[in-house]
Every structure is written in structure tokens, then in C-alpha cells.
Design brief:
The complex is a heterodimer of chains A (70) and B (149). By secondary structure, chain A is mostly helical. Chain A contains five helices and two strands. Classes of the chains: A mainly alpha (70), B mainly alpha (149). Chains A and B meet through α3 of A and α4 of B.
Chain lengths: 70, 149
């Protein structure tokens, strides 16, 4: 899963800590998502969607292997 | 009782079972209990007088490890829950492998520590298995947390 979380966070001019506080997780979780080490749950994805005011598909994207299996 | 209310009750009881964790302060209490238990174990070994603290220290270490294992983090979010589950899975598999394949080596070391007859390869005891499982879980969980920083 690829994501544009870092870019979206930069658009809103938020630090990892600030974004984490806004959606109720730790800074560690934001860092792990940005580095593609952790795929967030639907609930967390929708919280991010609400915050960025964009659909989830705009900042999360399946990679080629995942698309092929769909 | 209709099916819907029965299912609702079942769901609520399952939800209660999920809330097994203690607050973060119990982690420090667990560490304290382990330190006291290890000191008691050493005192027991060095003591000239016949004070038997072995069972107390055995219980102490196990209770301490359990408290650390089931204590929440300061921020217990979904990443931490996922890492915790990974650490329990790893501890379970590693515990079984250790019990099966490293039994003679571990038992020999345990015998040396406990000053039993050396070289007498018995099965790993239930205390040791629980210590191994909980220790692996606690250390692997800490390792995963550091890896995800």
C-alpha cells in the first residue's frame, strides 16, 4: 500500500505529533504509516479522510501486486 | 429470550473479555516486583541461614512479568495493539520451539543455577515455560516498539 500521508500533512502544515494528537494516536503510528510499515485500520483511515477533507483513495493507493489480486 | 438479545449479551460478554489490560502504572509495579524477587532469589542463594525464599521469588518473577505483559502503554493505539498481538504470537511459537528443541541445553543451565544434580536432563518445568513465554513476549514487544519509532 502506497500513501501520500506525508504530503497531505505538509499541505496542512502539521508535524507528526500534531497530526497524531488530532486523530488520537501516537506519533510513532504516524511515522510507521508514512514509512509504509503499518497499514492503518478503516477507522483511522476515515479519521484521516475527515481531517484532510478528501476521500481515502486520494491518499492511500493499492500497489500493483495488491491490485492484481483484487 | 429472543435471538437478537441473546446475541447482544454474547457480544457484550466478549467485549468485556477484551478489556483484560491494566493501566500503565502497573508496568512499574511489575518491574518493582521482579527486582525485589531477583534480590530475594540472590539473598536466598547467599544466605547462610536457612531462609527459603525460592517459592516467593518464583511467584514474584512470574507475577511481575505478567503485570508488565498486560499493562497498557501510555498511548495504547491500534499500532501498539497490533505489535502486542505480534509479540504474543511470536512468544507462543518461540516458546514451543524452545521447549521442544533446546530442552536439554536450557535444562542443563537451569540445573546449574538451581544447584540440582548436574547433567540430569529432565523436561522443562511449567515455571520455566511460563517465564520463557512471558519474557519473550515482553522483550519482543519492546523490540518491535523500537523498530517502529
Amino acid at each position: 500500500m502506497k500513501n501520500r500521508l506525508k504530503i497531505e500533512r505538509a499541505i496542512l502544515d502539521l508535524t507528526q505529533e500534531e497530526l497524531a494528537n488530532k486523530i488520537g494516536v501516537s506519533r510513532q503510528t504516524i511515522s510507521s504509516i508514512e514509512k509504509n510499515r503499518y497499514v492503518p485500520s478503516t477507522v483511522l483511515s476515515l479519521r484521516l479522510s475527515n481531517l484532510f477533507k478528501k476521500p481515502v483513495n486520494d491518499f492511500f493507493e493499492l500497489d500493483e501486486n495488491e491490485k492484481a489480486n483484487a | 429470550m429472543n435471538v437478537k438479545s441473546f446475541m447482544e449479551r454474547e457480544r457484550k460478554s466478549l467485549e468485556k473479555m477484551k478489556r483484560y489490560q491494566l493501566s500503565n502504572k502497573f508496568k512499574k509495579i511489575g518491574i518493582g516486583i521482579i527486582i525485589i524477587s531477583v534480590v530475594a532469589f540472590i539473598v536466598n542463594k547467599l544466605s547462610i541461614e536457612n531462609i527459603d525464599l525460592k517459592l516467593t521469588s518464583k511467584y514474584g518473577i512470574l507475577i511481575g512479568l505478567l503485570l508488565i505483559s498486560i499493562s497498557k502503554e501510555k498511548i495504547e493505539d491500534e499500532l501498539i495493539k497490533s505489535l502486542r498481538m505480534q509479540s504474543y504470537t511470536f512468544a507462543f511459537i518461540a516458546g514451543v520451539i524452545i521447549t521442544l528443541f533446546t530442552n536439554p541445553i536450557f535444562n542443563y543451565i537451569a540445573n546449574l543455577i538451581s544447584e540440582k544434580q548436574q547433567g540430569n536432563f529432565e523436561g522443562v518445568g511449567d515455571w520455566e515455560i511460563l517465564w520463557i513465554l512471558l519474557s519473550i513476549q515482553v522483550f519482543y514487544f519492546e523490540f518491535l516498539k523500537r523498530m517502529n519509532k
